[in-house]
């Protein structure tokens, strides 16, 4: 059986280059899935560009407070949240 170390899901509604709405869900970083609400707030209503996406990804990594277990350390999970949130938002924009 495979178990996720980190999972990220993003729903983004763009409107002429502006983030009309966004939801960022994080899995396997805590006992239950969580939303990155501070990251959502940082990007919602803003013009979508690389710097903003990078900032939102960093905020998500900082707010998630991941667990450490035999599969991955908290530090690794936080870094993967940063990478995957950035990647997933960029994919949603394109």
Topology of this protein?
Layout: E1 7-15, E2 18-27, E3 34-35, H1 37-43, H2 50-63, H3 74-93
Helix pairs in contact: 1-2, 2-3
Describe the structure.
The protein has helices at residues 37-43, 50-63, 74-93, and strands spanning 7-15, 18-27, 34-35. It has a 3-stranded antiparallel sheet. The model has no long low-confidence stretch (mean pLDDT 96). It has 94 residues and is α+β, with helices and mostly antiparallel strands. The radius of gyration is 13 Å and the shape is elongated. It contains 3 helices and 3 strands. A hairpin with a 6-residue loop joins β2 and β3. It has a single domain, classed as Enolase-like, domain 1.
How many domains, as an integer? 1
Number of E-type strands: 3
Write the CATH homologous superfamily. Answer: CO dehydrogenase flavoprotein, C-terminal domain
- Helical element count? 3
Detail the poorly predicted runs: none
Quick synopsis:
With 94 residues, the chain is of the alpha+beta class. 44% of the residues lie in helices and 22% in strands. The protein contains three helices and three strands; from the N terminus they run βββααα.
Can you tag this structure with a few keywords?
alpha+beta; 94 residues; single chain; 22% strand; Enolase-like, domain 1
């Amino acid at each position: 059986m495979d178990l996720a170390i980190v999972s990220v899901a993003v729903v983004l509604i763009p409107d002429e280059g502006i983030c009309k709405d966004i939801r960022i869900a994080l899995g396997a970083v805590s006992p239950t899935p969580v939303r990155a609400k501070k990251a959502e707030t940082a990007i919602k209503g803003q013009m979508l560009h690389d710097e903003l996406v990078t900032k939102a990804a960093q905020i998500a990594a900082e707010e998630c407070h991941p667990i450490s277990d035999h599969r991955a350390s908290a530090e690794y999970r936080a870094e993967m949240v940063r990478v995957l949130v950035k990647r997933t938002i960029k994919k949603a924009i394109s």
